[in-house]
Amino acid sequence: MKLRLFVLSCFCFVLAFAQNREDDLYLYDNFGQVSRDNIFKTDAYYNWGGSIIKEKEGKYHLFYSRWKKEYGFGGWLTHSEIAHATSKNPVGPWKYKETVLSGSGNGNWDAITAHNPKIKYFEGKYYLYYIATNMGDRAYSDNELVETAKTGYNHPNWKILRPNQRTGVAVSNSLKGPWRRMDKPLLEPSGPITTLTVNPAIDKGVDGKYYLIVKGDKPNEKRFIRNQAVAVGEHPDGPFEVQEKPVIDYMDTEDMSIWYDKNRGRFYGVFHAHNYIGLVTSVNGTEWEKANEFVLKNKEILLEDGTVINPDRMERPFVYQENGQPIVLSVAVKKGDESFNVFIPIIKNEFPVPNKRQLAWQEAELGVVFHYDLHVFDGIKYGQGNNRIDPVADYQIFNPEKLDTDQWVKAAKDAGANFAILTATHETGFALFQSKVNPYSVKALNWKDGKGDVVADFVASCRKYGIKPGIYLGIRWNSFLGVHDFKVNGEGDFKENRQEWYNRMVEGMVKEICTNYGELFEIWFDGGADHPKNGAPDVLPIVRQYQPNCLFYHNGQLAEARWGGSESGTVAYPNWSTFPYRATGAGESAKKKIADNNFQLLKEGDPKGGFWVPAMADAPLRGFNGRHEWFWEPGDEAHIFPLENLMDMYYKSVGRNATLIMGLTPGPDGLLPEPDVQRLKEWGDEIKRRFSNPLASTNGKGHLLELKLKEPMEVNHVILQENIADGERIRKYQIEGYSEGRWNVLASGESIGNKRIEKFDTEKLSRIRIKIIDSDGLVQIGNMSAYFVEENEL
User: Is this model's pTM higher than 0.90 or not?
Assistant: First the structure.
């Protein structure tokens, strides 16, 4: 009895621990390139969704659907069979071995087909789950089935075959067979699904029960919408009881594939939606929610030669994992008159590395953010506290008669900025673009008869001047609608309904921004966008789906960059791109130790951090001498930072492995004030003067890299850059210069990252070298350049 209680208490402890584990599975940026070996085609056949299993001897086995091309693609419903292929590698190449299941003949539930398999190993046996259909009591001929396949959805038989689709299982002691079929389906439609039960996905939970997910039609729905339901059983071959709560009923989805992740203590399920492969998760198998990485993969496949397959259809996702580590995403692809299975490798990086968006953002180094909102026009000093709660009395004051976004962007270009961001909405809630979901926008203005669109003008100017456009969305506060920290005011049902409406409006605005203005470089959510679990709008999937090349900054699920801990335009040193969390959070949702020691973790990062989250340094141009103005105010020109201060920022941000974003604010006439324009030009010219012409440059791998000068020359700056595409490896370094027959130490430091600017007293040198004193893995210096900067009076 004591032993039983002990075992039960251990199980409860494990279950409770698992349920407290966060969803931290992130694969979006880990899908590798595909080779010919990873594409499984068969002449004369359409190949379709596959399921992989590994035998004890190490060989991999694929069970998949196929049907002859002579029947047309519609033959999946009438002529599909389940085939078996083998490989030495889970990504292929695969070799057909045999057909294991096909229609069992008239009078059986699986009379006509065997389709969409899932192979599993439970309790010493192999279970091959599949779907099939029949014509009921109606007689039919082979020719009639061929006609049905070739005609497709419009053939009268389709209305018989589709509703008769069910899920079943065949069992074997060996992958070689023989396979013993069950004489009836595993379950009938009930609860959240009706009409049919298809596309099985199953795994065993930590509680020993089996969780089977199937697709069916959504009850009481006139549209063609599919639901996903879960059924629970004590044995892998049933009986199963369909649960009332659906897995997914909030959108049309298909083709679930699930697995239980023992390391994370939760189930995961991949599915296909119309435009992407998605991911859901559950800690108990019955209550499912969107995973943090809900949009798992967009529907495109990158090949090794750099070309991209854009499928007509990409379905039947299956994740193969070993020891809790996903290593392959298998998908079924239709392109033209071909259909084939693609096995996409999932790469696990040894060190944290930037994704393509982060790499582009760090390499951009310098950007600007234009702050523009209603209170620029009211002539009153901006106050953040009251601006978040007090609506602007008259939004018709927005009237930039001389609006010239070309002038704005050209000024940013002259400063050396490589990207620019515009506050499409800020704390008033007023939108500077043509929105169909937000009535509080430029559409409501007398200005330009309600047809103006500042965002469209801004993006067009960015493209004209070769600047990458980004958008800032303030959704955390909205004084017009009474929203504070994402929460609408009010009580009870009134508040709940308004909150739901506000969230839908925000999600609609994000989709408008992501779909109406072309490719964006960054989306910046003011103060973060919070986690949808906290009742906030669900914005990350929208950005992922429609702007896959856009840096996401940020919410409770993901921060692809981090605030550098101050609005001084500088970061601390050392400043690492690695960080202990994927998301920083904000306010009450902030991660542990974020605010400790005056935000030291944000300012410095963490050399041992497991995630790549590079630092942003930001400051308003009008922030000098005790002022800190992000928005235009009259008579504020005296507070534009002097050039000397701007160069100091540059050294202490870009020169410390951060991306610097300078805040600019056009005036009520629609122009960036001339003093600001002039200072930006001076700043850009000074950066060019100092760093556009190196004395010499080199790059290389290893712990010692030497740079030879043509002759002894005066040097007082060295710029170092790691090849951060492969991670941040250097932990300590020393720069030495060769003069008068010996090496002297010029500078030493810790982090380098994308760029480190070392400044030292002028010395006449013939050679310069960097010594790596401590590193984590192979060191790769992408650039080491020497400069002599003559100090001018600034």
Answer: yes
